[in-house]
Design a protein that fits this description.
Number of strands: 18
Structural class: alpha+beta
Largest sheet: 5 strands, antiparallel
Shape: globular
Oligomer: single chain
């Protein structure tokens, strides 16, 4: 039986969704990317683990995406199996101040749902259009608070197909980074420890964060979110403005006039356009300000 047939059979068992040659541009917030050989939305952890085992046994690469934000996919697409966790593997269990969220749980919904039961700590990711899996890998958040500060442990799948758990202390959370960016492990779920608190105060804080984002970021346009990590003692948007990068354009990709650390797809932008624009911004920052801009966006290489 071919790998395609095995994946189809596996997906049919629990109603998981499997598609072939689906454009990644349909699955990413930048609206960029060629076709993926197979895209699976697993409905259960068992299906995800089994699908990864099948793909790896067949010598195929495995890719993982959440909501498709903070991700640049290649124009040629990718071969192998893409695990798309949008709307999949999104179960959440709340017990006291402990929250167990599967990798596909959507961060804005998780923030609202925990506030609704009087738990605070996720206001910092209430405006992040991603999933808990990607949020843990990238340590998503705002300058004042990040997801890593409330993570207690993370369930993972290693390259041998074994599941294991690591405590937060061993994940080395830092600004927009974690150990998970350096390992070929898949996030299955995260256990969070939140703080009981005033629901109204939490909702007010979340509303404040969201209002600030709407004022300062091009949320209604096709972007990936922030492109560069914050350099020591500075902000990437300010550095890019100083270097004359605001409004700079390569093909269909343009540095936002609202926030210089965001690159907008103005229509028909390619991954090559975005990468050329990123390289030019890095060159200017290095030459004019002596600052090395480090991308936080994940780039898939075919």
């Amino acid at each position: 039986m071919s790998l395609a047939a095995r994946l189809a059979d596996l997906a049919a068992r629990d109603g998981s969704s499997l598609s072939a040659e689906q454009p990644l541009a349909e699955l990413t917030t930048w609206r960029i990317g060629g076709p993926a050989q197979w895209v699976l939305r697993p409905r259960s952890r068992a299906t995800l683990v089994a699908a990864v085992a099948l793909a790896r046994a067949a010598g195929q690469r495995v890719w993982v995406m959440g909501n498709g934000s903070n991700l640049l996919c290649p124009d040629a697409g990718v071969r192998g199996l893409v695990l798309n966790l949008t709307g999949a593997l999104a179960g959440v269990q709340i017990s006291g101040d402990q929250v167990i969220a599967e990798a596909g749980a959507f961060l804005p919904k998780l923030a609202r749902d925990t506030l609704a039961v009087g738990l605070r700590g996720l206001e910092c990711v209430g405006g992040v259009p991603g999933t808990i899996g990607g949020g843990v890998v990238l340590n998503a958040g705002i300058p004042e608070a990040t997801l890593g500060q409330v993570v207690e442990r993370v369930d993972l799948l290693d390259e041998q197909g074994e599941t294991f758990t690591l405590p937060a202390a061993e994940l080395h959370f830092a600004h927009r980074s974690s150990l998970l960016q350096q390992r070929p492990w898949l996030v299955l779920a995260a256990t969070l420890r939140l703080q009981p608190g005033d629901r109204a105060a939490g909702e007010a804080k979340l509303a404040e964060h969201l209002a600030y984002r709407r004022r300062t970021q091009p949320l209604k346009e096709a972007t990936c979110g922030s492109v560069f990590r914050r350099p020591p003692g500075d902000f990437p948007g300010r550095v890019i403005e100083i270097c004359g990068g605001k409004g700079l354009r390569v093909g269909g990709a343009e540095v936002s006039s609202l926030h210089a650390n965001w690159i907008v797809n103005r229509g028909g932008a390619t991954a090559a356009d975005v990468q050329a624009l990123i390289a030019e911004l890095q060159r200017r920052a290095r030459a004019q300000c002596g600052i090395e801009l480090v991308p936080e966006v994940i780039v898939w290489e075919p």
